[in-house]
Amino acid sequence: MNDPQIAIPVRAPATEALDDSILPFAVKALDLRGRIVRLGAAVDTILTSHDYPPPVAKLLGEAIVLTVMLGSSLKFDGRFILQTQSDGPVRMLVVDFTSPGKVRACAHFDAKRVTAAMAAGAADPGHLLGRGNLAMTIDQGPEMSRYQGVVPLEGGGLEAAAHEYFARSEQIPTRVRLAVAEEFRPGQNGAHRHWRAGGILLQFLPNSIERQRQADLDPGDAPPGTVAHATPEDEAWVEGRSLIATVDDLELIDPALSSERLAYRLFHERGVHVFRHAPVAAKCSCSRDGVETMLRSFPQADRDDMVEDGKITVTCEFCSSTYVFAPDEIAAAEPPSA
Length: 338
Ligand SMILES: [Zn+2]
Fold this sequence. Notes:
Layout: E1 7-8, E2 21-27, E3 32-39, H1 41-50, H2 54-71, E4 79-86, E5 90-98, E6 102-109, H3 111-119, H4 125-129, E7 131-139, E8 147-154, H5 158-170, E9 174-185, E10 192-204, H6 209-212, H7 235-244, H8 249-253, H9 259-267, E11 273-274, E12 278-279, E13 281-282, H10 288-296, H11 300-306, E14 312-315, E15 322-325, H12 327-331
Parallel strand pairs: 1-9, 6-13
Antiparallel strand pairs: 2-3, 2-11, 2-12, 3-10, 4-5, 4-7, 5-6, 7-8, 9-10, 14-15
The protein binds zinc ion (ZN).
């Protein structure tokens, strides 16, 4: 089941890198801002708890990195939800980030189609997702209206979809790199496998409005035949995106290369400022009270249908926690109907 393409070479344990952290940085000389995300136990906990086929786990890992990168940049308390719906073997991914640093995730997939895709050597993210859309929702709580941005999935992976989103919706020149792999560590009872993931986000945010104009925007609603106004790309952005194009997967997940060192490696010629690390952890928001409230919202007849072996069992699809209720535990305390 191990895909050699997603394995990290065996290495001696290293202490430098800070796992499960988000490192914001800025390159003032080029008007660039970004963040580097490094996930160890957080992504391993989520992916191991689901035990999905490796290509599905890797794809969900990429979605987790992207969600953590985007969700952690919000300047308020709330949730950021990334969700795909598409016609490929993986029909849905859901990643849910709650500020300041909690993440949970799950995938819905067709096991037969995933197995067939693996056998055909077509289990890369673009093939697994197929065509559909990717929605990003910002939820600031019941008092506030939700914001949702949707971008099409067109057979590319999540990086391509993210670039499309930022070009269309935000109109901010943006590049994203995502990497996920399994690390094999030799141990006393055989080798242990651990998922690791990392990513980098780079954005061009100049102060001057003139320089914010993008060169490659689609003419949009303009009448057919209109020639897109060709603005040359800003030199600072060309330099930034060229530098980020040199990042390879191993640099994003290597436990011996810290996020600071990676930022320095990329931008030292221009000078790079790093800010305070923010921690991130795998943590589900489900609870027995929450599940009980959800069960009470169903009519009694529906709850009766849920009873198996004299009890109602609910399993959280994000963290696989199981909650068991006696049927009368919920029915008895129901408020009398008018
Ligand atoms: Zn849960």
